[in-house]
Amino acid sequence: MKQLINILVVLAILPLLVLGLVNVFAPLNTFELYGIKPLGIMTYSTFRGAIGGMLIGGGLIMLMGLITKNKTWYQASFLLISVILICRIISVVFDGYTNDLLPAGITELYIIIVMYFASKQLGHSKN
């Protein structure tokens, strides 16, 4: 069971790292995907730094949990991705729904579930 959960963790890490790297090194692809017209350096900086950095950081936090076997890392990524999903739900309430939201929402829910079980499998934090 532990090996299956570790595989699921790796599968949760990959989309975050890939999307993060795309935002850092090819933000125009993200702009086109979401119909965003960059208005200046601040738009690029936000997508490369805040969004790309958060995605890569989230993936690296999970990787630290996988390497160290310290559930605190899994709990941190659980919290981070949970907040992202909650904010996405808030956006649906205020801005409306489109089926285009499903892949991201499902991916976030998948990561949350995997982080929950990955944390539970470790039982206790290592200090």
For the biggest sheet, the summary is: none
Q: Beta-strand percentage? A: under 5%
Q: What fraction, in percent, of the residue positions are helical?
A: over 70%
Name the average pLDDT.
Answer: 93
Structural class: mainly alpha
Number of helices: 5
Query: Which stretches are poorly predicted, pLDDT < 50 over at least 5 residues?
Result: none
Rg, Cα atoms, Å: 16 Å
Shape: globular
- SSE order: HHHHH
Number of strands: 0
Query: Span from first to last CA?
Result: 24 Å
Summarize the structure.
This protein has helices at 2-25, 27-34, 41-68, 71-95, 102-122.
Tell me about this structure:
The chain has helices at residues 2-25, 27-34, 41-68, 71-95, 102-122. It is mostly helical and 127 residues long. Helix 3 (41-68) runs antiparallel to helix 4 (71-95). It is globular.
Features of the shown structure:
127 residues, mainly alpha, 5 helices, 83% helix, globular
Task: Annotate the secondary structure layout.
Elements: H1 2-25, H2 27-34, H3 41-68, H4 71-95, H5 102-122
Helix pairs in contact: 1-2, 1-3, 1-5, 3-4, 4-5
